[in-house]
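Narrative of activities, Objective 1.

The group set out to show that a structural description can be obtained from nothing but a protein's sequence at a throughput compatible with the screening campaign. Below is one input-output pair from the validation batch, recorded exactly as produced.
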Amino acid sequence: MELIGMLDSPYVRRVAVSLQYLGVPFRHRALSVFRTFGEFRAINPVVKAPTLVLDDGTVLMDSTLILEYAESLVPGHAALLPRAGRERAAALRLVGLALAACEKSVQIIYERNLRPPERMHPPWIERVTGQLLAAYGALEGELESTLALLGGVRITQAHISTAVAWNFTQQTLPEVVPVAGYPRLAAFSARHEPLPEFAAAPFGDGTYQGREP
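Output recorded for this entry:
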């Protein structure tokens, strides 16, 4: 399989990290939805990152749907999400907050980098910033209790999505979400970023550095 997209996208990166933990082999092609739009469109006309091209040529998109498919390829004990009950709801709660933080971070970045200054709408930026801070505030407050509920024995999708989201925002909007206000998230990220699966898919313009099929 081939994962298409840049690792400076938290959605692409969470897939790359997750596939490693699931033991699903893949190759990575670092194509940008901006700089290499035409090349990306030749693979997926929707030009949505991440895109996953399966061995039979089927094209999947959206990180959550790609990971749902990837989990279907592995035994139940290897899944990154609890199968049911209170534990699954708790994990999905953290994943949802992390994805909301990613979404709001991207919206702010696009406002700053793509919209002409004279067309920026400060009330909209203020609203999105408030949503971003609310997501990280909830993650900061709930992280430890949720991970304790999950058992703390192994990495779950809650761990991956939270760590990837926090790193992304700190790489792109550190002045909006200051580290000093979120010590638990900062410490959590510092523990996870050096792990082999995270280090093999480093944030930025590069490519996946782990073992390929």
